[in-house]
Amino acid sequence: MKDWIIGHTHALCWVLVLVFAVLFLGLSAADRISLLAALVLYFVCSFGAAMFLNFFAFRELKAAIELLDGACDPEPLLALSRSVLRQNPRSIAFALNLGLTLILFNKSDESKAVLEPLAKNRRLWKKSAPAQAYCICRADLAPVETAGDWLDRLEREAAGAPNTERVLEEQRATLALRRGETEGLEPIFLDRLEHAQNLRIKVAWRFELGKLCLLQGRKAEAAEYLRYVAAHGNKLHIRAEAEELLETL
Q1: Average of pLDDT values for 87-96?
Q2: Which residues does 186 contact at the CB level (< 8 Å), separation at least 6?
Q3: Contact by Cβ (8 Å): 85, 98
Q4: What gap in Å lies between CA 112 and CA 131, rounded to an integer?
Q5: Could you say which DSSP state residue 142 is in?
Q6: Residues 172, 131, 198, 1: what is their CA dihedral angle, to the nearest 10 degrees?
Q7: What is the pLDDT of residue 23?
Q8: What SS3 state is found at 35?
Q9: How far is CA 5 from CA 1, 79, 83, 87, in A?
Q10: I need a surface site. Which of 55, 99, 181, 230 has the fewest CB within 10 A?
């Protein structure tokens, strides 16, 4: 039932608006309530219905994110984001989540198609949290030669926001690893792993550590990290990557 509601939120909202219009204007025409009272009730009920449906969608979003973080399963978040965006293409929150889940499935071209148009949306840059998430996704999708430009923009757009310095440090470290650099990265990765708050983050940092150890020729340690990713990565694309790397050891 909840999936049906999510998939028809936009239509349901319009149906309720029409129902309230007919109901309260009918009561007014029958002299049950005044025209002013009918208009007030109409706007209050219509606004309340829209808020309830919006709340319902974001409650489902929270549940989908919890499943992603706790079980490494991006599929519910992917399906929810696509469903909402079909009805409300202007939603920044669901576009960001769709872009992220497509990255987690290694669907880079699809993710770019979703995220690139957002760069011109002024609402995206008004708050540091979505701006930060957007820049991280774009840096991940960008070629290694230009990814740093997105991290520079992150630094400008989210200046003064909580944890910006910490986020920049870890993103610059992962970018350095993409370039094939290894010096000074392990303490950063180990610190992030130690403070990881959910399974998805633990899997992600072990994957980075596994790649780092491989570059340094520490195959036994790399295998230990990669086995964890293979065992707990579930539907994340890095699970398949970890399995491929393990086959080469």
Answers
A1: 86
A2: 209, 212
A3: yes
A4: 16
A5: S
A6: -150
A7: 61
A8: helix
A9: 6, 13, 10, 12
A10: 55
